[in-house]
Amino acid sequence: MIDRRALLAGTVALSASPALAGIAAKAFDPAFPKGFLWGAATSGHQIEGNNTNADSWVLENVHPSIYAQPSGDADNSFELWRADLDLVKAIGLNTYRFSLEWPRIEPVQGQFSRAMLDHYKAMIDGCRARDLIPVVTFNHYTTPIWFAAMGGWTNPQAPALFARFCETAARALAGGIGYALTLNEPNIMNILKVVLPPQAIAGQHAMLEAAARAHGTAKFAAGNAIEIDDIPTSTRLLIAGHKAARAAIKAVRPDLPVGVSLSMFDDQAVGAHSIRDRMRGELYGPWLDAVKGDDFLGVQNYERMVWDDEGRVAVPADAVRGVGGAEIYPASLGACVRYAHAATGCPIMVTENGASVDDDAIRARYIPAALHGLKTVIDEGVPVLGYVHWSLLDNFEWIFGYRVHFGLASVDRETFARTPKPSAGVYGAIARANRLPA
Ligand code: BGC
Predict the structure, then answer these.
(1) Would you give the DSSP letter of residue 404?
(2) Domain map (residue ranges) of the chain
(3) Could you report how far apart the first and last alpha carbons of the chain are, in Å?
(4) 20 C-alpha to center of ligand 1: Å?
(5) Does ligand 1 lie within 6 Å of residue 300's CB atom?
(6) Which of 48, 197, 259, 339 has the fewest beta carbons closer than 10 A?
(7) Cα 418 to middle of ligand 1, angstroms
(8) Per-residue confidence at 49, pLDDT binned at 50, 70, 90?
(9) pLDDT averaged over the chain?
């Protein structure tokens, strides 16, 4: 947590020394750059509901499953997307990040739905009508069942199939999009391999086998659930898929900024022989090289990881924790963004950052603290296009179901009514002013 008193004390001490007066004069500037993007994010499967052609729908409903519950109606955003856009606007933001559902647009291989493309076109137009910049993720994990049943991202045809979907979607939609992301966190399996307990990995194996049996196929590989042994193959194919998709989108609209988002930590080294640098290699794999030359990199940061010479150091006993037990550590955002830019040279957009807390007061403190760190890094010269908070709504949090809450607004599970939380007011005030409170 940023301690304002410590910061102030430091500034006073610096001003007292004539040699350092120049540095002191550059005390923290709370104003963000003109045109900064202030957004909230969602993903189709997590909010739309009844996404029955998706790989995740299969995994949620197969036996055994590691999902706490099925997504079902989710937040019914397939119907209520206008209310979602109104909410983004009412909070005071200027950007909305959402995703296309490939399973809806191409429910059968090669068969594209005009009606579904029109649905997402209406959402993009709806953003523009409200002066919101649409940041569109072409694929946020979920792939069509037919794709997963072909082995998903382990099948050599995957990059071309994904690029064909992106080209079709871009022809219908690219005109109104502000920023495009090809894939969401294609390095997620590298992360899960490190953070998931062995019983969850075993449970995932049993779930994938059950899905394969149910669909009469040798291998069922989902967008965010594959066998650990398949990670090297899928990483290679996901990178090829990202590059092919970027080329396909650019061919339709060369001036549209295209990137990919990565799940990243603030990886801290402790001790003389910390394994931090080796672990960065494992967590981000070849992606840090693969994204070089992209228009921007989407950074998705929630946590820090502290590495000593043996492994991950336990979270401090007095840490504030989220519902899943993760440490709530707002300073991780700035440090993570600094590293992401240094490692790739890309301009950065924070495409996700947030806190899984039931006590919204923690979120309300978290947001300004994280933004303080982000602004510090911007002032160091790191190009940052914007900050997009995860999430606009409490939603279907994958294997945790509806138990984990990241939303700036809660959603009534019976009526689907959206209710902004106090943290939305705190965040909106910063966004409207384009500056942190003094
Ligand atoms: C994903 C989201 C997810 C969020 C919180 C990110 O890894 O992109 O889909 O809900 O983290 O866990």
Answers:
(1) -
(2) 4-433
(3) 17
(4) 43
(5) yes
(6) 197
(7) 20
(8) very high
(9) 94
Query: Does the domain formed by 4-433 have CATH 3.20.20.80?
Result: yes
- State whether the beta carbon of 394 lies less than 6 angstroms from ligand 1: no
| Ligand 1 atom with least separation from CA of 395 | 10
* pLDDT tens digits, one per residue of 116-157: 999 999 999 999 999 999 999 999 999 999 999 999 999 999
**Ligand 1 in reach of 43 Cβ (< 6 A):** yes
* pLDDT band at residue 324 under the 50/70/90 scheme: confident
Q: What does the pLDDT read at residue 275?
A: 98
Q: Whose CA is nearest to atom 12 of ligand 1?
A: 397
Q: Residue 375: pLDDT band by 50, 70, 90 thresholds?
A: very high
Q: Whose CA is nearest to atom 10 of ligand 1?
A: 397
Res. 13: pLDDT tops 90: no
CA of residue 392 to ligand 1 center, whole Å: 12
Query: With the C-alpha atoms ordered 146, 215, 143, 88, is the resulting torsion angle positive or negative?
Result: positive
Mean pLDDT to the nearest integer, 414-431: 98
Residue type, 374: L
Q: Out of 99, 189, 389, 390, give the residue to mutate to test ligand 1, the one with the largest number of ligand atoms within 8 Å of its CB.
A: 390
Average pLDDT over residues 181-203: 95
pLDDT of residue 20: 46
262 CA from centroid of ligand 1 (Å) = 11
CA distance 218 to 215: 9
Ligand 1 contact via 75 beta carbon (within 6 Å): no
Ligand 1 close to Cβ of residue 263 (< 6 A):
yes
pLDDT at 21 over 80: no
- Whole-angstrom Cα distance, residue 351 to residue 301? 9
Count of alpha carbons within 13 Å of 63, Cβ hemisphere only? 0
Average pLDDT over residues 341-356: 98
Q: Is 303 in the pocket of ligand 1 (CB under 6 A)?
A: no
pLDDT band at 297 (very low <50, low <70, confident <90, very high): very high
The Cα 350–Cα 259 span in angstroms is 12
The bridge status of strand 418-420 relative to strand 409-411 is antiparallel
The residue whose CB lies within 8 Å of the most ligand 1 atoms, and thus the one to mutate among 191, 398, 402, 404, is: 398
The sign of the torsion formed by the CA atoms of 109, 115, 116, 120 equals: positive
Q: What is the 3-state secondary structure (H, E, C) of 260-305?
A: EEEEEEEEEECCCCCCHHHHHHHHHCCHHHHCCCCCEEEEEEEEEE
Question: Given this model, what pLDDT does residue 10 score?
Answer: 32
Q: What are the distances in angstroms from CA 251 to CA 163, 170, 256, 315, 346?
A: 11, 9, 10, 46, 21
